[in-house]
């Protein structure tokens, strides 16, 4: 199978490659052409996944296709952008039809879920890796950046934390668990749900936002730095996760909620006046802390004692 046949069979003919409202020209020419709505800015983000670094050598290509798209789409959600399209740069060691079929199916399914059109890409030979670049539209000046948090704002998250990290020992085959525990965690890892609608609902409300890819504390550190404020995480307000707690126990579960990456849930700061209306429409929203004057990220227990993890990898959360 030649390069063009491969592109045609698995990607150009996929349902997600049929274009979209803001796609003036899709796959097949030297460039795709995007036509964002008048008054919109383009939001663009790119992510690379490399075998052995970002996913295991042996894994289901369908799940990998879902994940490759989801982690990039989540960046659009974090900016409050509405989805337009994406490109796929794929490096393959060989053209394995079974692998390509599974990968393309997972990618296509997630792309359709996210309303992202496949508009082009590149196909090369080498160690397995994939780069997805996503394009979205956001009304000029309304993108959610990391820089607007103000003392007095609430610190919120859009869903459960630590579950993708908790799934890692299952993904790597180091642990097993019964389906009621394993399945929800594995789904979080392999098929993150980019919070695109939620991100758009936060426009004009959230003062700062991002998606949690490196763990709550690390990513809160980005907001604290960019906004010039301190973020306080209240440990007893972290969302409950029955599956995570069943697999690893309460203490380890809390560590993962604070420090594990890969959740792709939104974290944001919010002036309190917006909370009632948002919570009513988005029941997974949780207030997990607050913004104060100062710098850095601190974790407090229910009694207000500072329990910020300070050892090892956590050091870089401190200013
Ligand atoms: P060029 O040589 O102009 O870069 P290519 O031969 O690499 O073009 O690709 C031909 C067309 O197929 C282009 O429109 C490109 O965007 C698209 N394409 C290549 N690889 C992929 C892929 N993996 N997924 C989707 N579209 C792809
Ligand atoms: Mg090319």
UniProtKB/TrEMBL annotation:
Binding site for substrate: 54, 262, 314
Residues that coordinate or bind Mg(2+) 4: 30, 45, 75
GO molecular function, one term: thiamine-phosphate kinase activity
Boundaries of every PurM-like C-terminal domain copy: 150-299
List of residues binding Mg(2+) 1: 46-47, 122
Residues bound to ATP: 121-122, 146, 213
Organism superkingdom: Bacteria
Listed Gene3D superfamilies: PurM-like C-terminal domain, PurM-like, N-terminal domain
Function field: Catalyzes the ATP-dependent phosphorylation of thiamine-monophosphate (TMP) to form thiamine-pyrophosphate (TPP), the active form of vitamin B1.
Note: Reaction mechanism of ThiL seems to utilize a direct, inline transfer of the gamma-phosphate of ATP to TMP rather than a phosphorylated enzyme intermediate.
Similarity comment text for this entry: Belongs to the thiamine-monophosphate kinase family.
Name of the protein this chain belongs to: Thiamine-monophosphate kinase
Organism, scientific name: Pseudomonas nicosulfuronedens
Upper taxonomic lineage: Bacteria, Pseudomonadati, Pseudomonadota, Gammaproteobacteria, Pseudomonadales
């Amino acid at each position: 199978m030649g390069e063009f046949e491969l592109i045609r069979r698995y990607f150009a003919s996929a349902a997600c490659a049929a274009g979209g409202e803001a796609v003036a020209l899709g796959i097949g020419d030297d460039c795709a052409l995007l036509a964002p709505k008048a008054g919109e800015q383009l939001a663009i983000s790119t992510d690379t996944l490399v075998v052995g670094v970002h996913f295991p050598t042996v894994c289901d290509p369908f799940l990998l296709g879902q994940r490759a798209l989801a982690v990039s789409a989540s960046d659009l959600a974090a900016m409050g952008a509405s989805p337009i399209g994406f490109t796929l740069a794929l490096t393959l060691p060989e053209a394995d039809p079974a692998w390509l079929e599974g990968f393309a199916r997972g990618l296509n399914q997630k792309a359709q879920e996210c309303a992202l059109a496949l508009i082009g890409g590149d196909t090369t030979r080498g160690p397995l890796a994939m780069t997805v670049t996503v394009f979205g539209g956001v009304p000029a000046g309304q993108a959610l950046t990391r820089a607007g948090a103000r003392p007095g704002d609430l610190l919120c998250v859009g869903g459960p934390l630590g579950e993708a990290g908790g799934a890692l020992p299952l993904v790597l085959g180091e642990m097993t668990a019964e389906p009621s525990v394993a399945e929800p965690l594995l789904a979080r890892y392999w098929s993150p749900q980019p919070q695109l609608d939620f991100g758009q609902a936060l426009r004009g409300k959230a003062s700062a936002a991002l998606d949690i890819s490196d763990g709550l504390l690390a990513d809160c550190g980005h907001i604290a730095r960019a906004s010039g404020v301190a973020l306080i995480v209240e440990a007893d307000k972290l969302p409950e996760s029955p599956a995570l707690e069943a697999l690893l126990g309460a203490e380890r579960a809390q560590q993962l909620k604070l420090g594990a990456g890969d959740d792709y849930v939104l974290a944001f700061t919010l002036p309190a006046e917006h909370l009632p209306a948002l919570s009513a429409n988005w029941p997974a929203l949780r207030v997990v802390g607050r913004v104060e004057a100062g710098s850095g990220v601190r974790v407090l227990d229910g009694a207000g004692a500072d329990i910020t993890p300070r050892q090892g990898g956590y050091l870089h959360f401190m200013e």
